[in-house]
Amino acid sequence: MTEERTVEPLLEPREGIPPVVADPGALVRVVESFAAGAGPVAVDAERASGYRYGNRAYLVQLRRAGAGTALIDPIACPDLSELDAAVADAEIVLHAASQDLPCLMEVGFRPRTMFDTELAGRLLGYERVGLGTMVETVLGLRLEKGHSAADWSTRPLPEDWLRYAALDVEVLVELRDVLHGELEETGKLEWAREEFAAVLRTPPPVPRSDPWRRTSGIHKVRSVRALAVVRELWATRDRIARENDMAPGRVLPDAAIVTAALEGPRTRKALTEIPAFTRSGARRYMSEWLAAVTRARTVPESQLPQPSTPGDGPPPPNRWPDRDPAAARRLAAARAVVAALADEHHMPAENLLQPDAVRRLTWEPPAEITDDSVRERLRGLGAREWQLALTAHPIARALARLETKGEL
């Protein structure tokens, strides 16, 4: 790994803070500039998570040799497809790409090839892979990360926020170059390329049929009637948040929904005794909250939600010893193999092989345990070829050993 070095603060973009691109003419000039540039294109996006409804981009930053840095307002310029076409042949460098790709694709920016500096760091065994830490560890430069959780929907954006945003892509290509070299030296470059391609192939998440079930603290709610309260309050909050373009938690926190479900308030006064319902964001909708609770209390039995909905995968592993002891032993054996291999190759176990694939394989293994059957099962569960080359044989051997010992 990179030797320790003196750390220098990265305080200003090399060419200064560029003006924010917020009109078609300025965007055309950026497109032309980036089309004429050379080499990889560093890209980042800033969202307003926790402030606005959804995860759209409120600023897109790019940097390329020969083009410099561009800061684009995707609210004023919501279609970046021409910029996307201008750099279609370039490698796009992102950090934690899975976080930024959905909002970039919403504005028409769809990388064909990619280098993810966070994922590269994981494969190389870096203990901390946040952008600031990686830049400091690898390049010896310190990035200011104080505005990462800011409300990027703010207009106009403050100058120090724009400086922060420009610096996020200032040295991203340099970081990519060093990590690329380390991947090559350690024989992991092809592994990384497979991982990057897999991230780009990942389809957008399918909306959950019962998104209200992800309410934090819902495990405390035991009765189906109380679950109906969670469902009705969640749906009411989601509608209000969407209509007002606010993060749902700023309208009403999850904890208030769960408390209302547990206490079952029947009157406006009882509802106001739950503190979160009286704060400014929620108080103006008091009639709607009470109506939601009333609907839940009066909904017919046939329309009450069930305690849980069956998933398409195995149960939580802590239930395996009781439900299927043989599967629990298979899981323990497979996990031990993956952990040992991950340690040998200096990377997190979850990057060597997806935990969900390990669980599904060991809950429903092939009828006959062989290298080929395990490999095909894991391939069908999304494992990449480099992962199969490292894990299929030792996992098959471990599972076969259990069969031989009569433990299955």
From TrEMBL:
Q: Name a GO molecular-function annotation.
A: nucleotide binding
Protein's name in the database:
Ribonuclease D
PANTHER family the record matches: RIBONUCLEASE D
What range(s) does the HRDC domain occupy?
A: 223-303
Organism lineage reads as: Bacteria, Bacillati, Actinomycetota, Actinomycetes, Streptosporangiales
Q: Which CDD domains match?
A: RNaseD_exo
Region listing for Disordered, in residue ranges: 297-324
What Pfam family is a match, any one? DNA_pol_A_exo1
* One BP term from GO: nucleobase-containing compound metabolic process
InterPro entries attached to this UniProt entry: 3'-5'_exonuclease_dom (IPR002562), Exo_C (IPR041605), HRDC-like_sf (IPR010997), HRDC_dom (IPR002121), HRDC_dom_sf (IPR044876), RNase_D-like (IPR051086), RNaseH-like_sf (IPR012337), RNaseH_sf (IPR036397)
Instruction: Write down the SMART domains for this protein, in alphabetical order.
Output: 35EXOc (SM00474), HRDC (SM00341)
